[in-house]
Every structure is written in structure tokens, then in C-alpha cells.
């Protein structure tokens, strides 16, 4: 059994730490660049930027900056302010863990149709999480002239362990909330493609994030030495960030890929809001492909269950400089009453919108 507190062991552990960080930096840079086209779609305006994407971008880029800072700290050959450098790395890395949980929380809020009670509860939990993340300087580092490197000399394991335990519990709560809501929607046919994707992504996220945080917490509680206490913090942050950001990208691409007809609300209450259908169409205009969206709300009636939807899309091309029209003809039928209706919607991203409804 090695003497984990000895100077020779700390130097050896530091060498292992350096090699591990370089491997993790390579993994994350690879993940970053294979998905950079998604980020560029928002920068170039091809996709509309919405406020929840703030957490996605902060999550990705804060962790990237933290890894770059760690690489600088591990490879610098001239004396620098090691404490300031590691303070930034610690705050940015812990913030990435918190932002990863926020990204999945936003999906949970969407699954629950923006329930105000759930929003308030999650905000309270998130604030508690960030109160631990922003506790202050939890890692001490200094320049070692003999090795000409920055070395971690001490770490506040109590607060660090509490932060990662909180993250595990938070992730578990999010998984249970998603499971409770989505399993009920799956039904005998296995649910919609969107439901299956949300469920599987949430499960994968929890397993990876939970195991990553668990390993980091175990080593912090063992408190072998200053380096071994934090050696698995970076893998935990990278694992959580990668799976959380992938979940955001998959959900975003799902909505842009094709039509998913989804009816919200159920039951026979006449006061319930009529079901809403959202379709995505791609049409050819002047040799170019244009994406159009149609948001259709069924007429106020008792069409709240057993609705069959048929959609026919056809294209009429006008002068491209003045926009084009891509009508979508939707026919729906209530299985229980046999009542039918139809809606025709014209809506393109760069054009005007008009719709008409008729009973069949």
C-alpha cells in the first residue's frame, strides 16, 4: 500500500493526472468539432436562437475554456500564478456540471408543459446547486520550482463532495420526473418517436452522469491526497456535458427533421384546449429547398381523443423575390364520433401565413 501523502507519491500522481487530462482534452475537442456545425447554424442565422440555448452554449464553451486552462497549467514551463489559473479552472469546470443539469431540467419542464409548480421547484433546486458550485476557492495550487509545474497542494473535499452528491441527487430527480411522465405516454404501442427519444436520452444521461459523479465523489471522500481527491472531477464534468449537449442537439434536430403530429390534452372536458398539430415541410423553390412550418389548432369541438390525421402537401411557386407559398392540407377525423374536418395552412419562414378551415 503506497504512502499517498508522501511527496514522491504526489509527484507520481501528478504525472498520471497530467496524462489523463491530455487524453480527456483530446476526447472533448473531438466531440466539440464533430458537432460544431450545429453551433454554426445558430451563429449564421440558419436556426433561430432561443433563450434556452444560452445554457447549451455556456455549458460547451465553459468546459472547453476550463480544459484549455488545465492544459496551460500542466504544460507551462515558466512560473505563473498557479492559484489564479486553478481557481478559474475549478469554477468553469464546476459550472459545466451545473449547466449540464440545467439543460436536462429545461427538457423536463417542456415534458410537463411548463408546469409553474415544477418550474418553481426546479429553480429552487438549481439555486441550491449553484450555491455549492460558487462556494469559492476549493483548490489550492502553487508553483514547484523543482519540477517547473503547477501542483495542487490541497482541496476542500467536503464542499466538493457535497457538490457532486447534490449533482447525483439532482440528476436522479430529473430522471424520475421524466420517467413518470413519459412512461404514461408510451401506451401499448410504445409511444411516439419523440417520447421514445426523450426517455432513452434521459436514461443514458442519468447513467453516465451518475456513474461519473459517483466515481469522483468516492475519491473525494477517500481523501488519499490533494491530487487523487480531484483527479476524477474533470471526467465527471466532461461526461455530464457531452451527454447533456448531445441530448439538446438530438431534440433540436428532431423538430427540424420532419413532421411529428402530436396532440396535447386528453379527456372529454369541453373546456379543454383543442389539440394542436405542428408539421414541418420542405419544398423546392427556384432550385432551392425551403423549410416551412405549419402550426394547426383543431376547431373548437369534441375532437380530443382518437384523432386520425391525414396531411397532403403541395407546392405553388411564385416569384422567389416575393416569397413562395407551400400549402398544407390536413384532414382529421374523430374515431368516437366520426366527425371530420380539414385545415389548409400556408406558412413559410420568409412568407406570410393564411389558413382556412372547413367541416367535411
TrEMBL record:
Keyword Transmembrane helix: yes
UniProt organism field: Armillaria borealis
Superkingdom per UniProt: Eukaryota
Name this protein carries in UniProt: Transmembrane protein
The keyword Membrane appears for this protein: yes
Record's keyword terms, sorted: Membrane, Transmembrane, Transmembrane helix
Transmembrane segments: 20-42, 54-76, 118-138, 158-177, 198-220, 226-248
Region (Disordered): 329-360
Stretches assigned to coiled coil: none
Amino acid at each position: 500500500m503506497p504512502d499517498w501523502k508522501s511527496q514522491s507519491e504526489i509527484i507520481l500522481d501528478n504525472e498520471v493526472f497530467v496524462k489523463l487530462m491530455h487524453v480527456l482534452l483530446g476526447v472533448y475537442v473531438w466531440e466539440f468539432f464533430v458537432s460544431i456545425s450545429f453551433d454554426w447554424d445558430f451563429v449564421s442565422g440558419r436556426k433561430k436562437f432561443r433563450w434556452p440555448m444560452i445554457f447549451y452554449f455556456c455549458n460547451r464553451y465553459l468546459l472547453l475554456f476550463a480544459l484549455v486552462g488545465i492544459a496551460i497549467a500542466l504544460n507551462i514551463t515558466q512560473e505563473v500564478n498557479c492559484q489564479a489559473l486553478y481557481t478559474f479552472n475549478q469554477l468553469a469546470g464546476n459550472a459545466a456540471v451545473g449547466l449540464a443539469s440545467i439543460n436536462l431540467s429545461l427538457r423536463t419542464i417542456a415534458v410537463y408543459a411548463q408546469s409553474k409548480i415544477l418550474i418553481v421547484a426546479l429553480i429552487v433546486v438549481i439555486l441550491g446547486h449553484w450555491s455549492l458550485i460558487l462556494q469559492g476557492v476549493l483548490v489550492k495550487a502553487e508553483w514547484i520550482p523543482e519540477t517547473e509545474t503547477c501542483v495542487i497542494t490541497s482541496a476542500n473535499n467536503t464542499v466538493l463532495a457535497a457538490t457532486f452528491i447534490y449533482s447525483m441527487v439532482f440528476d436522479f430527480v430529473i430522471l424520475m420526473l421524466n420517467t413518470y411522465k413519459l412512461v404514461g405516454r408510451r401506451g401499448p404501442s410504445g409511444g411516439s418517436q419523440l417520447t421514445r427519444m426523450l426517455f432513452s436520452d434521459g436514461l443514458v444521461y442519468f447513467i453516465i452522469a451518475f456513474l461519473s459523479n459517483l466515481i469522483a465523489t468516492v475519491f473525494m471522500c477517500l481523501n488519499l491526497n490533494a491530487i487523487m481527491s480531484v483527479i476524477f472531477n474533470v471526467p465527471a464534468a466532461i461526461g455530464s456535458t457531452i451527454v447533456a449537449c448531445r441530448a439538446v442537439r438530438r431534440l433540436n434536430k428532431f423538430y427540424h427533421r420532419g413532421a411529428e403530429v402530436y396532440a396535447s390534452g386528453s379527456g372529454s372536458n369541453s373546456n379543454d384546449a383543442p389539440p394542436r398539430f405542428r408539421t414541418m415541410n420542405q419544398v423546392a423553390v427556384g432550385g432551392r429547398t425551403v423549410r416551412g412550418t405549419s402550426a394547426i389548432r383543431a376547431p373548437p369541438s369534441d375532437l380530443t381523443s382518437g384523432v386520425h390525421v391525414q396531411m397532403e402537401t403541395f407546392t405553388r411557386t411564385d416569384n422567389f423575390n416575393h416569397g413562395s407559398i407551400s400549402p398544407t392540407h390536413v384532414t382529421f377525423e374523430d374515431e368516437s364520433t366520426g366527425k371530420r374536418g380539414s385545415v389548409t395552412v400556408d406558412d413559410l419562414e420568409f412568407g406570410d401565413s393564411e389558413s382556412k378551415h372547413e367541416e367535411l
